[in-house]
Every structure is written in structure tokens, then in C-alpha cells.
Specification:
about 550 residues
Length: about 550
């Protein structure tokens, strides 16, 4: 390749293009939280980049023209920007830097800086948006170098900016939870009032705003942990933007050169890469990080909100039904499970119970996803407001609905058992309703509000147990074991019943056919009890219980 000048230049273009992808503005830095702590891996990756980078410069040691100087400079700059990803991982994986430690210490005394507060106007809520470290022991004297939430609410007329700053301040506080740093403000009445007398003051009108604040807060947390976006809020912001502009210009020059030399494939590739680079620049300038940066850097009370091309999330929730999806198959997972079973049991001589997933023991079907309706959002907000933050694991809901005799279903050995019992009961009622509707014997023509809410939340709970048990209070292994036991019992009892009608007929006669005190049995027993109640009362209780 070095014998041909044309091939050498083409190789340089392609090498530079691939190297610049390393410092892409939206690069993923981690796929699980623990990835951010693998500093040795980042060091080895950077070393490999350098080792592969040096020969590119050595290809043409006679640097004579301005183009060669600029080209080598951009190569070094592109390679160095990979440090931005490493830096983003470092700040996401540790809480020991000066700024984080300052925040933790500041929040121990924040409530004492103001004796009065107003959760509507945020007066007295001196949560930090931006702050500079000032030397000395008396850290509270440095408030003149910080921007607080109350200052933004007092100076800005933009409701969107106020809510965005509130989300960012809450995200900063949420970070401490990841590292088990104490949160002294969590037990204060002031913090309680922020939610119930501020965000949820008027539930019917304000619930959408509350969800927007939480949505932005979690978006900040996701970007901070899993992407390099957090580096935009540091000193690396300007170099990243400058590099992106340089890269776009380089792609433009490459396109012109490729067209003039009849290299259409290279030209098309460069056009695509340049479009992606410009798109990433716009995505950054329209992101919440850029808006917060404008507030922090210029102390602006108003910022420009560029239209965002992508939403923060899909506004959907996962759904899984233990009974309805019982015989549905995930063939890819079943094949992988069957191969794993063969390797471990036949080759490695592990016990046959070590891995039971396979063709003859089908695994859990993949989740469905439904759009999170405003009815469900409002129902959750209403329940949270009415409970005043005092959750009772369903007991208070049963008492409100005069069903004290069912409290046994809320008093099980763990949360997973309680959720499964009520989920199975809800699915039993759902199957009964479907079968009766097909026969024309149901007195509920259109699915009621409570029916819709109960079904969606019940299946969401099953989705959490089946696919993300780490988000639930119990240890994820206990949750998984509880679900697998209930699923095994259901499979043994309903092995031959493929249709909903046949499942319903057999479950309806469970007293004669089913014995034992397992979670599945209790769920069917509870569902059979609710079948004797009218539709309105049945779905009212089931909807309330999942809140």
C-alpha cells in the first residue's frame, strides 16, 4: 500500500475516520454501572489505540505540506478525545471527587441556611445547580460562587427552565444513592412538602408536570452513568465541540477529494459520517445538558430551547402475564438454554437441575410493551397524594374497600409472593372476563377505567419480577426463585390447557383438582373469590391494591 501515493492517502482518510469514531459525542461508556469502575480496561483500550495510531503517522514521515501538518494534528486530537469517554466513566463511577464530597457535606446543612421555605415558589430550597470549590474549612461561606434552585425560580420566568433545573438538582442528589452516601434531607418535612405541597399540590392539574420532572431527572442519571454526555458539563465541553466542527470540516474536504478522484464509495461513506457528526452536534446543542450548561456558565435566567429530535424515553411500560403467556415460547432463548443444558449436564457433568431451561422446558416469553396512558399516570399520582407518602403494602386499600378478610394475601413471606398472588388473581379475573365476554354473559360491555388500570399495573409487576427483579425490594435471586416456583406449578397444573377457555374451566374447579399452599394456589383461590363479586367492585379493589 505504501508504494502507491493514491492508496496511501485513501488509507489515511479511512484510518482517520475510524479513529474519530472513538471520540464520538454520544458514545456509550458503559452498559452496566460496574463498567464505569473498570479503569484498567480503559487504560488498556487507550494503549491499544495509541499502538495502532503510531503507524498511521509513520506511513509518511516526510511531513512537508500544511495538509500533512493539519492531518497529523487532527489525528492526535481525535485520539486524545477518547480521554473524554474515560473521564466520563471516571466521574460516573466514583463519588470521591471534590465536587461530590462538597455536595454531600453541603446537604447536611442546607436546611439550616433558610428557616422558611415555600414548595411552590421554591423559596428556601437552596439545592445546588452549579458550584465552585472554595478553599477553607467553612464551606458554607462559598455560596456566592454557586447557583441554587431557589435563585433560578426567583429570577426566571420560564417554567420549562425552572422544571429542568429542578430535575438537574434532584439528579445531583440522586447520585448519592448509587454510592450509599447518606441523604440527611430525606427525613425532613421540608423535603416531604416539596413533593406533596409542591409538585403534587393540585394532582389533577400538576401530575403531568411531576412526571416531566422525574423523566428529565432520570434522563440526566442515564446519560451520566452510561454515556459521555456528562463530560459536556465539564471543561472538556469546548474541546469536544471544536473537535466535532473540525471533524465535520474534514469530512467535507474528504468528500470533495473523493469525488474529484472518482472514489464514489468513499464519498458516500464520508457524507453519511459527516451527517451523523452534524446530527450529534445538534443533538448536543438541543439537549438538556447544554441548557444547564448555559445556566451554569452564564448565569442566564432564560435559555433557547431548540427542538429535540428524540424523546427521553418511549413512554411505554413492559407487560407480562404469567397465565396468558404460560405456553408462549421464546425459541431463541429455548435453543440457547437447551445447548447450555447439554454442555453443563452431558459434558461438564453438572446435576440435571443446574440448568433446566431448554426446548422441553420452555422459558419465559419476551415482554410486551404498552403506552403508559394518562389514566395510569393520574391514578398513581392520586394514590401517592392520598397516602401522603405512607405506603401500607395494600392493607389500607383493602380496608377502604371493606375487604379486611383478604389482608392475608398482603401478609406473605416476601414482596414477590404478595405481588404474584395478586397478579395471578387479576389474570384469573381477566381470563374470566374475556371468556364471559365471548359468550355474551359479561355485564361489563366496555373495559372500565379500573379494569384497564388493574390489568396494566398487574402485568407491569409481573414484568418487573420476570425481567428486572433488581428493581424490586427483595433480593433479585429470591424474586426469581419465587416466580419460577409459581410458574412451574402453573405449568404442571395447566400443561394441557393451551387456550384461555380451557385454562378458565380448569382453574374455576381448582378446589377439586388443586391442593397445596403455594403462591399459584393462593392466587387462584383469590381470583375465584373475586369472580363472585360484581365487576365494578372487583376491579375497584384490584386497581387500588397495585398502588
Amino acid at each position: 500500500m505504501q508504494s502507491s501515493k493514491a492508496n496511501l492517502v485513501l488509507f489515511e482518510f479511512w484510518s482517520f475516520t475510524l479513529l474519530m469514531a472513538l471520540g464520538s459525542t454520544n458514545s456509550m461508556t458503559a452498559y452496566v454501572i460496574e463498567d464505569n469502575k473498570q479503569y484498567l480496561r480503559h487504560f488498556v483500550q487507550q494503549l491499544i489505540y495509541v499502538v495502532n495510531f503510531v503507524p498511521i503517522i509513520k506511513l509518511d514521515p516526510n511531513v512537508k505540506t500544511l495538509k500533512d501538518i493539519v492531518f497529523n494534528f487532527l489525528l492526535v486530537l481525535a485520539l486524545s478525545m477518547n480521554i473524554g469517554r474515560i473521564f466520563a466513566s471516571k466521574i460516573a463511577g466514583s463519588f470521591t471527587d471534590d465536587r461530590s464530597l462538597y455536595l454531600a457535606e453541603y446537604m447536611k446543612h442546607e436546611h439550616s441556611t433558610s428557616t422558611s421555605y415555600n414548595p411552590v415558589t421554591m423559596e428556601g430550597y437552596n439545592y445546588l445547580i452549579s458550584w465552585n470549590i472554595v478553599s477553607g474549612d467553612e464551606f458554607l461561606t462559598s455560596t456566592c460562587d454557586s447557583i441554587t434552585l431557589s435563585e433560578i425560580f426567583l429570577s426566571s420566568n420560564s417554567e420549562r427552565l425552572k422544571d429542568l433545573c429542578l430535575s438537574f438538582a434532584l439528579f445531583q442528589l440522586l447520585r448519592r444513592r448509587l454510592f450509599r452516601v447518606p441523604c440527611p434531607e430525606s427525613n425532613l418535612q421540608k423535603t416531604h412538602d416539596l413533593i406533596f405541597q409542591g409538585l403534587l399540590l393540585n394532582v389533577e392539574d400538576d401530575y403531568k408536570r411531576a412526571y416531566r420532572v422525574i423523566e428529565a431527572e432520570l434522563a440526566f442519571a442515564h446519560d451520566h452513568i452510561f454515556t459521555s454526555s456528562a463530560s459536556f458539563n465539564t471543561r472538556l465541553r469546548k474541546p469536544i465541540i471544536i473537535l466535532s466542527i473540525f471533524k465535520a470540516l474534514f469530512y467535507y474536504v474528504s468528500i470533495r477529494y473523493s469525488i474529484s478522484n472518482h472514489r464514489n464509495v468513499t464519498a458516500i461513506f464520508m457524507v453519511i459520517i459527516m451527517a451523523v457528526e452534524l446530527l450529534q452536534l445538534y443533538v448536543y446543542f438541543s439537549s438538556d445538558w447544554a441548557r444547564i450548561r448555559s445556566v451554569c456558565q452564564h448565569k442566564a435566567s432564560e435559555v433557547i430551547f431548540f427542538p429535540q429530535l428524540f424523546g427521553r424515553w418511549q413512554n411505554k411500560i413492559g407487560q407480562h402475564s404469567l397465565l396468558e403467556d404460560l405456553h408462549h415460547r421464546s425459541f431463541t432463548n429455548d435453543i440457547i438454554g437447551n445447548l447450555s443444558w447439554y454442555i453443563f449436564t452431558k459434558i461438564l457433568q453438572y446435576p440435571s437441575t443446574f440448568l433446566s431451561r431448554g426446548i422441553y422446558n420452555p422459558g419465559i416469553k419476551g415482554p410486551n410493551r404498552i403506552r403508559l396512558s394518562n389514566d395510569i399516570k393520574l391514578a398513581v399520582a392520586r394514590t401517592l397524594k392520598c397516602s401522603d407518602g405512607q405506603l401500607s403494602n395494600g392493607a389500607s386499600s383493602l380496608q377502604r374497600n371493606n375487604q379486611d378478610g383478604l389482608i392475608w394475601a398482603c401478609r406473605q413471606e416476601n414482596h414477590a409472593s404478595v405481588m404474584l398472588i395478586w397478579h395471578i388473581a387479576t389474570e384469573y379475573c381477566e381470563i374470566a372476563h374475556s371468556c364471559q365476554a365471548r359468550k355474551g354473559t359479561s355485564d361489563e360491555g366496555i373495559m372500565s377505567y379500573n379494569h384497564n388500570v388493574a390489568r396494566a399495573l398487574s402485568r407491569y409487576c409481573a414484568y418487573l419480577m420476570a425481567f428486572v427483579p433488581e428493581l424490586l425490594p427483595d433480593h433479585h435471586l429470591d424474586t426469581t426463585a419465587c416466580l419460577q416456583k409459581a410458574r412451574k406449578d402453573a405449568m404442571e397444573y395447566l400443561r394441557e390447557e393451551m387456550s384461555l377457555e380451557s385454562k378458565y374451566r380448569k382453574m374455576k374447579n381448582f378446589n377439586q383438582l388443586l391442593s397445596g399452599e403455594g403462591t399459584f394456589t393462593k392466587g387462584i383461590q383469590l381470583g375465584n373469590f373475586f369472580e363472585e363479586i360484581g365487576h365494578a367492585g372487583r376491579w375497584k379493589v384490584l386497581a387500588d391494591i397495585f398502588f
